[in-house]
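Limitations
The structure tokens in this dataset are predictions for the assembled complex, not deposited experimental models. Users should treat interface geometry with appropriate caution, especially where small molecules or nucleic acid strands are included. An illustrative entry is reproduced here so readers can see what is and is not provided.
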Amino acid sequence: MYTWFWRTLPGPTSMKAVLSLLTFLVVAALLLFVVFPAIEPLLPFNEVTVDETG
Amino acid sequence: MNGDSVRTIVRGLGQALMTVGVVLLLFVFYTLYVTNLFAAQDQNQLADDLSTRWSVPATAPPPPGPSTPPVTAEPAPAEAPAPVVTELGAAFARLYLPSLGRGKDDPMVAVQGVSTADLQKGPGHLPDTAAPGDIGNTVFSGHRTTYGAPFADLDKLADGQVVVVETRTDFFTYTVTGSQIVAPTAIQVAYPVPGELGATPTQRLLTLTTCNPKYSAKQRLIIRGELTDTYPKASGGLPAALTQV
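Predicted assembly:
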């Protein structure tokens, strides 16, 4: 998967490296600010109240 | 199957596992740090909301009478206080924990309601419980970790230390009388008389709940307090509990 990705990137190695880093940052930001906030309430880690369902 | 295809499959699997690992690490980073950023923004917003809300005169109190059933589903006592009118999710009160570094300059803003969304903004007041200062049991819940972790150090609250709840009209100083670790289903801690369903409350109690142990949701940590001082804001200044620290 990453082999294919690396081959697909244009330019010399230095440019590939910069593009890889940028891609990683974009994906990470997407996860941190969009995906995780959306799925986090569905996870059972943050129950602080007392209620019948626990 | 020749060696090349085996190598490709193994390499693909390895890369997929590394990706999963990185995503999980990012999720840990998200819960421990990024959620705090979100909560800090929300707290700033709520602090503004509360100042605005309190700067205008209170709306007319709701009609007297047993208009809201108490959490116990028992008949409301005749002297039941008027229900709190703050809508769910809105800024509700300021909480001061002077002994935990949240003194007069750094209160947390509590919201009305304890839904997941409410608690991501700050500590939440369990809507069916007594309003701060009233007879009965005033219950606040808050995150132990993540989302600003308002109740992170609740376990360090010792008996005799104070929790101050500021409402539109008063500072209510509660003195901690004990703590307890209970199961997540222990709703009796939120009864008007804790542990006694249907009993008529006579004391003005405060209950703080959060998860326990830290980084887990296995149990609940319960802090109990009793109202020891009421300081009307009309008299100006701050209650002794906030100026001494």
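Some entries come with short summary sentences. For this one: Confidence is low (pLDDT under 50) at residues 72-78 of chain B.
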